[in-house]
Amino acid sequence: MSVRRLITAISLGLMAAPLAAQSPVTGVADAEALFKDKDPVKNRNKQAALHIMRELLQCGHWSDAGNWLTERYIQHNPNAADGLAPVQKFFANMPRTATCDKLTTPVVAVLAEGDLVNVVIARSYPDPNEPGKTYTTSWFDMWRFVDGKADEHWDAATKGARPPQTQAK
């Protein structure tokens, strides 16, 4: 097969089978160590990201979100609205873990540059091609910080299906 035909086949999804087995995505042994930096501003922002990951996302302490998020918090996740209060409402009923003293999320990397902190984590999903099996992939959350609080957020989320609407009679 020519290179041109191979590229065309891949882009059209005609070669659905992977060319090789996937290497699993895994987190590091001591994820919290990744949230430290010698630069004081990057360290402050990484520590705030750690609090968001552990206290808010993992433990569900959304009543304390104002400690780590600004009032105008811009949310680029297409399922959540901008602003501190709407984000608190969106996450209020999300699943929580009982462990709050240590981050249990499988963190792969934490990168800081300027006012941005990017956290890459491992995620596991059901394999749509092999029922009963799962596969791993990477997910990211990135925040822009202002004075030690997250003011803007990006992630890899796509729109979720809305619940069916009931029709008025």
Q: End-to-end distance, in Å?
A: 59 Å
**Silhouette:** globular
Count structural domains: 1
Helix proportion: 10-25%
Strand order, sheet with most strands:
1-5-4-3-2
- Contiguous low-pLDDT stretches (5 residues minimum) are none
Mean pLDDT: 87
CATH class designation: Alpha Beta
CATH architecture: Roll
The counted number of beta strands is 5
Strand-residue fraction?
25-35%
Largest beta sheet, briefly?
Answer: 5 strands, mixed
Report the order of strands and helices.
Answer: HHEHEEEE
Give the C-alpha Rg: 19 Å
Question: Which structural class should the secondary elements be placed in?
Answer: alpha+beta
Please give a structural write-up:
This protein has 169 residues and is of the alpha+beta class. The protein has one domain (31-155): Nuclear Transport Factor 2, Chain: A, CATH 3.10.450.50. It has three helices and five strands. A five-stranded mixed beta sheet has the order 1-5-4-3-2, covered by helices on one side. Strand 4 (134-146) and strand 5 (149-155) form a beta hairpin. The mean pLDDT is 87.
Layout of helices and strands, plus pairs?
Elements: H1 3-11, H2 40-58, E1 69-75, H3 84-91, E2 107-113, E3 116-126, E4 134-146, E5 149-155
Parallel strand pairs: 1-5
Antiparallel strand pairs: 2-3, 3-4, 4-5
